[in-house]
Design a protein that fits this description.
The protein is mainly beta and 662 residues long. The chain contains seven helices and 32 strands.
Length: 662
């Protein structure tokens, strides 16, 4: 039963971290990479006396300033005797330490480091997971419609296999089929895999297959997982991890080919890379008979005749290198790469797209840095795509005292800045056509209280979708967390945002209306005993555009969690009621799901929501998860839109997952 206890505790630790750091992610964002890292460190804790900056960067709840302060402390005081010494490091508050302790240790027995054929089979760790999910109600797209409809079956399938040999070899294979995609003839629509080697002398990393690259502040080159603004104000400074094997099911945000990180000179690493892929795109023929496209399709969905027609029609070849110097408190780097496409991109007819990229080839350059000076962590990046404008971001994190830290960031992205792999901090979905100033503050005056505040003012110098003039706006957040004991926590949050958008009025010349959104949240977490815990939340949303009446929506829910320490079965259930006048006043809330699956439910309209998750430990290394989720909407005849439309007022889904570790 000890294994069941460890497994249950691991998932609770990871679930708490996921909910705290994923506030601003899209509801369909694939969290596999993040969960993979946390699961591995939970099983094989990091030795704090032999840890690398990259290992600490992969722990998403640590800020760059905290990581820098950690290494400064070790440099001045020597190795740690106990993980609780972290309390003496500037910026390491109680919550950070509690999050960190499950994943770290001191003086860990060294893992086997010799790579030989016999040990690969004898000592390696294998992890096989299979998942099935399906909506129980029939969607319109699966009926015998003329024209566009779903040509495949309604089930979702996913299979993933992972192999790890210590920290020097990993192998990953991922197979995925979305609902509506064909299963027969070709069982899975998406195939991904890689082999990665680490610590091979001068070759620090080598990945063949699918991989991601993350450098600087995400302005020049960043693929895979990325955070933006959140309640932890220090998350505005990105933690680049360089080259990593790719293990997610997102079908767009990765490279396919080979890359390596090599020690060129002392303190100097170089990462050359090459990638060959075929992307989805909506294409047409220009007046000269050539195929052209205006955008790349990033959904990875191939369900309808048009989606299948657009599948893998655009070739992409990418090659380049990044070089980085790091010593003590200073790190500087440069990136240069070129991406080539099989057909040309053309300007779309909309005025806001006037400065979009055109052509078949794009060359990008970038410079990035970070520097720690006493209690300050300075960071930034400048980037340019040839033939386009310049973009840059600079910021500083400051430890004002053991209890107070601040973040200040300024960004300026030209309207004609071009990069296909751009995930820098921005209010828009892409870091382009934007100027902004961000100021945040974390205050932890005692073990019981934690406060977060940030304000972000932004301007868009050129037009945007549904915005026919230059526009501006702001975003504010204030949060307080009260934790009087390990068994009780209260969270209160206020968040407001104002932007500008074309008026909905029928007028000859469109003008901009102020669009205001606000949210109020009160959440209480109770640990009743070793087996049972409760979470209660009440959330209110407000929306107002121009002179129209203000919309007012709300969500209330009760979560009940059953996680006994020595039991084969664990589970949780939610009961929720929501009432929002329209999609504009919708509310998002994190939902527990099966392992490696991430849910951020959207509550829109009026109705009830419930789900039940169960996990059963069939054997020592064999686990099964089951999930049932149900929406019941009031005063509606259909649920969903277009091909996802369901007759009636119910929408439900079942999910089964099996995991075998050997």
């Amino acid at each position: 039963m000890a294994n069941a206890q460890e497994s249950n505790e691991t998932e609770i630790d990871i679930r708490d971290i996921l909910e705290s750091v994923t506030e601003n992610l899209p509801d369909d964002y694939d969290m596999t990479e993040l969960v993979d890292v946390l699961m591995r460190y939970r099983k094989h804790p990091i030795d704090l006396n032999h840890v690398t900056p990259e290992e600490l960067k992969s722990l998403v709840f640590l800020s760059p300033l905290q990581i820098s302060n950690f290494f400064s402390y070790v440099k001045e005081n020597g190795q740690l005797l106990d993980p609780l010494e972290l309390q003496g490091i500037d910026g390491f508050d109680v919550r950070t330490i509690e999050n960190l302790l499950p994943f770290v240790a001191v003086n860990v027995q060294p893992e086997y480091q010799q790579l030989n054929f016999r040990n690969i089979f004898k000592l390696g760790e294998n992890d096989l997971m299979m998942r099935f999910a399906e909506s129980l109600e029939k969607q319109k797209g699966f009926t015998d419609l003329p024209g566009n409809r779903y040509l495949g079956t309604p089930e979702k399938f996913q299979t993933r296999y992972r192999y790890n040999y210590s920290t020097i070899l990993s192998v990953g294979v991922t197979l995925d089929k979305d609902a509506g995609e064909k299963f027969f003839n070709k069982p899975f629509d998406f195939y991904s895999g890689n082999v990665a080697l680490f610590k091979l002398g001068r070759i620090k990393k080598l990945v063949v297959g699918d991989y991601t690259l993350q450098f600087g502040q995400g302005l020049t080159l960043w693929s895979g997982f990325s955070f933006g603004k959140g309640p932890d104000v220090t998350s505005v400074a990105k933690k680049d991890l360089g080259l990593r094997p790719y293990n997610s099911t997102n079908e767009y945000s990765f490279f396919r080919g080979a890359s390596a990180t090599i020690t060129l000179l002392k303190n100097v690493d170089i990462t050359p890379f090459i990638s060959f892929r075929n992307l989805d795109a909506s294409q047409k023929t220009d007046k000269d008979g050539n195929l052209v496209q205006s955008t790349i399709n990033q959904t990875g969905l191939h369900r309808t005749p048009s989606e299948i027609k657009n599948k893998s029609v655009l070739s992409q070849q990418l090659y380049g290198t990044a070089i980085q110097y790091a010593q003590n408190e200073l790190s500087i780097g440069a990136i240069a790469y070129q991406s080539n496409y099989g057909n040309s991109f053309v300007v779309q007819t909309a005025a806001y797209d006037r400065y979009s990229f055109t052509g078949k080839s794009l060359t990008n350059f970038g410079l990035f840095y970070n520097y720690t000076y006493k209690n300050m962590y300075l960071y930034g990046e400048g980037a340019k795509g040839l033939g386009g404008g310049f973009a840059y971001i600079n910021g500083v994190l400051v430890s004002l005292s053991k209890a107070v830290s601040a973040a200040l960031t300024y960004r300026d992205y030209a309207k004609d800045y071009h990069s296909f792999f751009n995930q820098a901090v921005a209010e828009s979905t892409e870091a382009v056509n934007e100027k902004g100033l961000y100021l945040g503050l974390n205050v932890n005056p005692s073990k019981r209280w934690a406060f977060s505040f940030y304000g972000d003012y932004f301007r868009f110098p050129w037009l945007k979708y549904r915005v026919d003039e230059p526009s501006k706006g702001y975003e504010l957040l204030a949060q307080a967390v009260y934790t009087p004991s390990k068994t009780f926590k209260v969270l209160a949050r206020f968040k407001a945002e104002q932007k500008q958008q074309n008026t909905d009025l029928d007028v000859p010349v469109k003008f901009l209306d102020q669009v205001k959104r606000a949210g109020y949240r009160l959440e209480v977490n109770w640990l009743l005993n070793k087996n049972w815990s409760l979470q209660n939340r009440a959330e209110v949303s407000q929306y107002k555009k121009g002179a129209a009446n203000k919309e007012f929506g709300y969500l209330i829910y009760q979560d009940i969690d059953y996680s006994p320490m020595f039991s084969r079965i664990t589970g949780n259930i939610r009961f929720a009621y929501f009432n929002t006048p329209s999609y504009n006043s919708r509310i998002y809330a994190y939902e527990d799901d099966v392992l490696y699956s991430f849910s951020f439910g959207m509550y829109s309209g009026k109705g009830y929501r419930t789900y039940l998750n169960l996990k059963y430990n069939l054997a020592k290394k064999l686990n099964i998860w089951m999930r049932y989720g149900l929406f019941i909407y009031k005063d509606v005849e259909t649920v969903g839109t277009y091909l996802d439309e369901i007759k009636g007022n119910k929408k439900s889904e079942v999910k089964l997952q099996l995991r075998y570790q050997f």
